[in-house]
Amino acid sequence: MSTTPFRLLSAAVLTAGLAFAVPAPASAAGGPCAVGTWKLTKYTMKSHIEEVTAKAKGGEGTRLTITKKSASYDFSRAKKVVTKGVVEGDPYTVTDVFKKKLTFKSSLTGKKKTGSLSLKPKTATGGATISSFLGGQSTGTAKLAKIYRAGLDDRFIPTFGQYTCTSKTLKLVLEADGPRTTIASVHYYKRA
């Protein structure tokens, strides 16, 4: 697992608990348009955790396949994800390279064009890895399924997100707030 300050603080704060904006469960009658295979076209993330601020982008080409009971990520064509930020006044750049595939059992709630996607971290399977570089220097490679089953996660693969979709596009948003903590990540997909 990467040992960058951003990741360590993210893990500590997230395990301490954040307030997620969770809509009330509703029937998925008629089938949500989120079901299908999607290709990531844009990803942005902004966070402020204690004394750490961060902005991230990248990952285009990642494929996400959603069914009513599972969500699978295919990183075989994914671009790198770059996070830039500041830790107690010191700037840093982290580059993450995702490879292979990752699958979760999941649930969809809401209406046809809006709702939420929830991943079940303990069900994570697959050979996907994340290799991280801090300022160009490797901080290691980790197996994503193992990370999620251990209760940690990565903002690029949120365990919960609110979606809006059409027949051709999907927008997945995570917003979380806690004591001295805010995180907002947005994934834009097009139908693959």
Helix and strand topology:
Elements: H1 5-16, E1 19-20, E2 36-49, E3 52-58, E4 63-66, E5 70-74, E6 81-87, E7 90-99, E8 101-110, E9 114-125, E10 129-134, E11 137-143, H2 144-149, E12 160-165, E13 169-178, E14 181-191
Antiparallel strand pairs: 1-13, 2-3, 2-4, 2-14, 3-6, 4-5, 5-8, 6-7, 7-10, 8-9, 9-12, 10-11, 12-13, 13-14
What does this structure look like?
An 8-stranded antiparallel β-barrel has the order 2-4-5-8-9-12-13-14. The radius of gyration is 16 Å and the shape is globular. The chain is mainly β. The protein is about 10% helix and about 60% strand. The two termini are about 30 Å apart. Keywords: Signal. This is Polyisoprenoid-binding protein YceI.
Order of helices and strands: HEEEEEEEEEEEHEEE
State the end-to-end CA separation: 31 Å
Strand order of the largest sheet: 2-4-5-8-9-12-13-14
Q: Could you report the average pLDDT, rounded to the nearest whole number?
A: 87
Shape type: globular
Radius of gyration equals: 16 Å
Largest sheet, if any? 8 strands, antiparallel, barrel
Low-confidence stretches: 1-30
Tally of contiguous helical segments: 2
As a percent range, the share of strand residues is over 45%
Number of strands: 14
Q: Which class of secondary structure composition applies to the elements?
A: mainly beta
Helix content: under 10%
Give the key terms:
mainly beta; eight-stranded antiparallel barrel; 58% strand; disordered N terminus
